[in-house]
Design a protein that fits this description.
alpha/beta; ph1033 like fold; Rossmann fold; 4 domains; seven-stranded mixed beta sheet; five-stranded parallel beta sheet; 41% helix; 13% strand
């Protein structure tokens, strides 16, 4: 068997420095330009190892093969030599540079990081080593038709054309848009945006007092959940504006879309300009990172982290990166993360927060997938193919989940709350601004204490989640307690996720792991003197009967004791059975306006008490708004009249009904700097109007009538 040797490909350009190739060659050295990075990598290089200076970038024209109009990754080999001394400090190598000024171009199989160790243990590596160090030509046809590159550059790839047709257009649009990073040019961009919004009735951009915009929101205008013909027409307008030469694609398959109600990547707040600037910075770095070399890596990580920390930037930020360079960046929406959970450890955590995922994590993931794509046994071989495969595996989940949308809408970074022992009672709940009648609240609490399980149901915006968490505080006795666990059901939730199932471990084995329900059961059983609550948001978004399994029987209040214990589907050794303790309460929320959600079966219904929450614009709401926001009684009465008239209009519509009425939660927070009229109009335009557009999609007359009820003719 041939000896396995390691060869090294080394960058010569570091952050903030010019290319050091000539200096290294003339001095007979190679030096690490970082003080606290790559030290162990450099120390591992041995005397006698062969090294090459390389530069990595992307190229689209003047290539020695047909690249189908797409960017190709190129690694230029500038010099090769042999290490004569390693100083052992992680910084300095002495090198006998044997060949210089090579300027040999190697295609496809490249690596952007500063140090790349390559072993001669597979055909890809052997070809690269022979090309760089032994002057043998690259078999370009073999690489073009290898799994990772075949769909883009290979022979006879007509079957892949629909997947690839849109990529050159998107890349050229992205390049042309970059010129508007200069703020002085964005007035022209904003003028066109406003014209476009009026022409295509993009309500989320009309009358929003926008003076600036980020590049991802620009691209989002034709990447939302609209009819394909509308998207094509908007894209054509942008092509004319930017003078794009690539044709508007006919096939749009495999392009991630924004949720129509969350189409901005920045907030309408005092931080808006800084957020927009951060997004332009990331956009620029992302294009340069994919087009030039590894000098941009640190910038990318920094800009990615800044953008992800912004309230409206969640995983949808990766949609934007994918739009501008589909073959360089990965979409990380819900369906992709679910698909990748089979292969990538970090996505096995269904509740992974954006705050737990950094730019460094993203780049490591790209590196990992690059290696996997080159494996012919891996099911996909490029980012577009991965995304399309994930979509086809979950055809009903193209858009973000409501949970992700809610996370951005509420401007929340779902980090773990601070645990404070702050007493909480029914009076505290009422004083916080609860509009539910006190008598009904007492009835809800009584049912919860007796039956142990309740579900709060109602139309959107009726404060179901808000109330559920505060009822949990009352049951536990404290606010923000560690005794409360909140989760959300979704279509991919399973028994194994919620109760117990086998999960891969870091050593490649399977481990029997408890889900969140068993975790809080064990907490409650081990602390019988305290109450515990699990809040399940959108309980009908999954399949509750399947998710609960045998626990469905144990939910009953009269079975909350050890005598009723049942063996679980997956048992630990010597485990005798599990029961739900009497000090554990379950509060669910249920949106009755979403027809796509599962109906609850009768066995589950029998174990829960149901309480309906309706829109409340009565005296409690009027008093709260007048006290908190200093609006006049006349102004509030006018707002109340308009909303109640709209809700009556919705209720009278046979295709909708009371389940689709507008809740009070939309109208409880105000901007103190705005008048009552401006505040009301802002809420209607930014939150209610998009919802009504969805209600009466394809029925413009009904939509127009509803808006007139809210805003009046001519307003």
């Amino acid at each position: 068997m041939d000896e396995i040797k390691t060869y090294w490909f080394l960058g010569a350009k570091f952050k903030g420095n010019k290319d050091q190739t000539e200096n290294f060659i003339s001095s007979g050295i190679w030096q690490n330009g970082y003080d606290n990075k790559l030290l162990d990598n450099v120390k591992s290089i041995s005397v006698g190892d062969k090294v090459a200076i390389k530069s990595t970038y992307n190229q689209k024209i003047n290539l020695p093969f047909d690249n189908k109009g797409l960017f190709v990754s190129v690694m230029e080999i500038k010099a090769i030599g042999i290490v004569t001394k390693n100083h052992g400090d992680g910084k300095l190598l002495e090198v006998d540079w044997q060949q210089t000024n090579l300027n040999k171009k190697w295609y496809f199989y490249t690596y952007i990081n500063t140090i790349w160790s390559v072993k001669n243990d597979n055909w890809l590596n052997k070809q690269l080593i022979n090309f760089a160090f032994y002057d043998q030509p690259q078999d370009i046809d073999a690489f073009r038709n290898a799994p990772y590159w075949k769909s883009r550059y290979g022979d006879n790839n007509d079957n892949n054309k629909p997947l690839l047709e849109w990529i050159p257009f998107y890349e050229e649009i992205a390049d042309k848009l970059l010129s508007y990073q200069d703020k002085n040019k964005r007035l022209k961009l904003m003028t066109f945006i406003n014209q476009l919004a009026l022409e295509f009735k993009l309500s989320y951009l009309i009358d929003k007092n926008l003076h600036d915009i980020c590049p991802f929101t620009v691209l989002g205008t034709f990447n939302r959940g609209n009819a394909e013909e509308i998207r094509k027409n908007i894209a054509q307008k942008w092509a004319e504006f930017f003078d794009v030469k690539e044709p508007v694609p006919n096939s749009w398959e495999g392009i991630p879309l924004l949720n129509n109600q969350i189409s901005w990547f920045f907030t309408n707040s005092e931080n808006q300009q800084q957020e927009i600037d951060n997004l332009w910075d990331l956009y620029s770095v992302a294009l340069n990172f994919s087009n030039i070399d590894d000098n941009y890596q640190e910038d990318f990580k920094q800009k990615f982290d800044l953008a992800m920390a912004q309230p409206y930037c969640s995983w949808q930020l990766t949609n934007g990166l994918f739009w501008i360079r589909p073959n360089a960046y990965l979409v990380l929406d819900k369906v992709t993360k679910s698909y990748l959970s089979q292969y990538v450890e970090i996505f096995k955590n269904k509740n992974l927060r954006k705050s737990d995922f950094s730019g460094n994590d993203y780049l490591k993931l790209l590196d990992d997938l690059t290696v996997r794509f080159a494996d012919e046994n891996f099911p996909v071989h490029s980012y577009p193919e991965l995304y399309l495969t994930a979509l086809r595996n979950n055809e009903n989940a193209i858009l973000d989940t409501d949970y992700e949308a809610k996370e951005r809408l509420n401007n929340q970074d779902t980090t773990e709350p601070l645990i404070i022992k702050q007493p909480y009672t029914l009076d505290d709940l009422i004083n916080e601004g609860c509009f539910v009648d006190e008598q009904q609240l007492q009835a809800i609490l009584k049912s919860l204490k007796l039956k142990k399980n309740i579900i709060l149901q109602g139309p959107p915006g009726t404060g179901k989640t808000w109330l559920a968490k505060r009822l949990a505080n009352i049951i536990v006795g404290y606010k923000d307690s560690k005794n409360i666990k909140a989760i959300q059901f979704h279509p991919n939730m399973s028994y194994e996720d919620f109760i117990r199932g086998y999960r891969p471990t870091s050593d490649g084995k399977l481990s029997l792991t408890d889900g969140p329900f068993l975790e809080i059961i064990n907490q409650a059983r081990n602390d019988a003197q305290s109450n515990y609550v699990i809040v399940i948001e959108e309980i009908n978004r999954g399949n509750p009967a399947q998710i609960f399994g045998e626990m469905l029987t144990l939910l009953e209040a009269d079975k909350r004791n050890p005598n009723e214990a049942l063996e679980l589907t997956y048992q630990h050794q010597n485990e005798k059975g599990v029961f739900i303790p009497a000090n554990l309460y379950v509060i669910g929320t249920m949106n009755i306006a979403d027809r796509s959600l599962a109906m609850l079966d009768f066995a589950l219904r029998r174990r829960f008490a149901f309480y309906h929450l309706s829109p409340h614009f009565g005296e409690n709401w009027l008093n709260y708004m007048q006290e908190k926001h200093a609006f006049s009684p006349q102004q509030l009465q006018d707002i109340k009249r308009r909303i109640e008239a709209l809700n009556q209009y919705i209720s009278n519509d046979s295709s909708l009904g009371k389940a689709f009425t507008i809740g009070h939660s939309y109208f409880t927070c105000s901007n103190q700097k705005m008048t009552a009229q401006d505040w009301f109009k802002h809420i209607v335009r930014s939150e209610i109007e998009p919802l009504l557009e969805e209600y009466w999609f394809g029925e413009p007359e009904k939509f127009s009538d509803a808006m007139n009820i809210l805003l009046g003719n001519g307003q």
